[in-house]
């Protein structure tokens, strides 16, 4: 969880140490159709299922000593609600917004409002594909974007998010 203290606050050293030592929590979100990974256009998205990707994410999380919750939704509203609630529980977000990347101002606004670091990831290189995939509404709200590395996009995204919330 993000901690914001007014400038005049005197922070107890013990409490500060406790906050710093607390395991960071990262929310990994996947957008529409990513539940179909493994059988959806494997020539573009590979043969790993979302469960298999999530297993790799969890094993890297252990290595990085962070906690990860992974969720997927086909619904824009549900993703927006999860992003809105994220600062109550999480220190950073890794998000593959899937097709909402190219359409959702609502998701971008939610990420901006959440005010915790967000890393945008894509399995495919969205700049080498159809013209309409070259624009991301999310990019302007994210700290950065990783695209084109398959499952590694998520793992690199998790490393970036862990570094951001431990910085
Ligand atoms: C994607 C790229 C998007 O353009 C597409 O709509 C997706 C997946 C990716 O991970 O490469 O569903 O986000």
Commentary on this structure:
The protein has 167 residues and is of the alpha/beta class. Helices cover 38% and strands 16% of the residues. It has 6 helices and 5 strands. It has a 5-stranded parallel beta sheet, covered by helices on one side. The protein is globular. The two termini are 14 Å apart. 1,3,4-trihydroxy-5-OXO-cyclohexanecarboxylic acid is lined by residues 33, 96, 98-99, 101, 122-124, 126, 133.
Helix-strand blueprint:
Elements: H1 13-21, E1 25-30, H2 42-45, H3 50-64, E2 67-72, H4 76-85, E3 92-96, H5 105-114, E4 118-122, E5 144-147, H6 151-166
Parallel strand pairs: 1-2, 1-3, 3-4, 4-5
Explain briefly what this protein structure is.
This protein is α/β, with parallel strands linked by helices and 167 residues long. It has helices spanning 13-21, 42-45, 50-64, 76-85, 105-114, 151-166; strands at residues 25-30, 67-72, 92-96, 118-122, 144-147. The model has no long low-confidence stretch (mean pLDDT 93).
């Amino acid at each position: 969880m993000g901690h914001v203290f007014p400038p005049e606050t005197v922070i107890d050293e013990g409490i500060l140490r406790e906050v710093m030592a607390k395991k960071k929590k990262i929310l990994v979100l996947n957008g529409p159709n990513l539940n179909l990974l493994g059988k959806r256009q494997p020539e573009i998205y590979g043969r790993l299922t979302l469960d298999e990707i999530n297993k790799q994410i969890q094993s890297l999380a252990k290595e990085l000593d962070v906690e990860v919750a992974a969720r997927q939704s086909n619904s824009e509203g549900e993703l927006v609600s999860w992003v809105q609630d994220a600062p109550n529980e999480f220190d950073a977000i890794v998000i593959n917004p899937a097709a909402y990347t190219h359409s959702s101002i609502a998701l971008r606004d939610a990420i901006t409002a959440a005010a915790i670091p967000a890393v945008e990831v894509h399995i495919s290189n969205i700049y080498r594909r159809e013209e309409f995939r070259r624009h991301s509404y999310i990019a302007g709200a994210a700290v950065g974007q990783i695209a084109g590395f398959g499952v590694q996009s998520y793992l690199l995204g998790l490393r970036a998010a862990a570094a951001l919330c431990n910085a």
